[in-house]
Amino acid sequence: MAHEHNDHCGHEAHDHDHDHDAPGNLGPSDTLYPYIDFENVVALNAETEGRVAIKPWHERQSEEKFIESDADDQLILRVPFTGSVKLRAILLKTGPGEQTPDKVCIFANEDNLDFSDVSERKPIQEFDVPESRDVGEYAVKPAKFSNVTSVTLFFPGSLGGDTTRLYYVGFLGHWTERKTNPVITVYESQANLADHEKIQGMDGSFSAPQM
């Protein structure tokens, strides 16, 4: 499986203010921190709750609290959102040293992944994680993460340590309120056979508009 290199990994470990940062110390204007469903964040094979590493922007460099794997160096972190998200990037501060994960595999809307099946699933995207004490920004392919209700991060191993450690996990993107079956609602409320016949040009047969 090919890793994401070049534009995504080599120069992404950094810690500086972006042009899209909001005024003051709120962080990037498109941070998804306010829209995380903290009560349902799950960390598998972790010594502490997963949400301890999902911090406000001004705490991104803090190393006081962190997630660390337990039995070995594998770690799964599942983060649900309170609405639908178009994900733009994932932010990670990891380490130190050999406790840095060697890579991160990213899944969307997989709410039941565990270690028994995660290795059999192909992630939507994955990145090598450089050894650094700074916050790295990993830009995902927006088209692949355009309707996300949860993100699962799988860290399959460390750079040689017995455990893997995460100090900070953040998300950038656009949040919208979750709607319930919007397409079905529209068609049920507006279905008119005569109208559809005129639009579709069908000879008396009904055909739903092609999406």
UniProtKB/TrEMBL annotation:
It holds the Pfam family PITH. Gene3D superfamilies: PITH domain (2.60.120.470). Residues 21-191 form the PITH domain. This is DUF1000-domain-containing protein. Residues 1-28 are annotated as: Disordered. Belongs to the PITHD1 family. Residues 1-22 have a biased composition (Basic and acidic residues). GO terms for cellular component: cytoplasm; nucleus. It comes from Cylindrobasidium torrendii FP15055 ss-10. Coiled coil: none annotated.
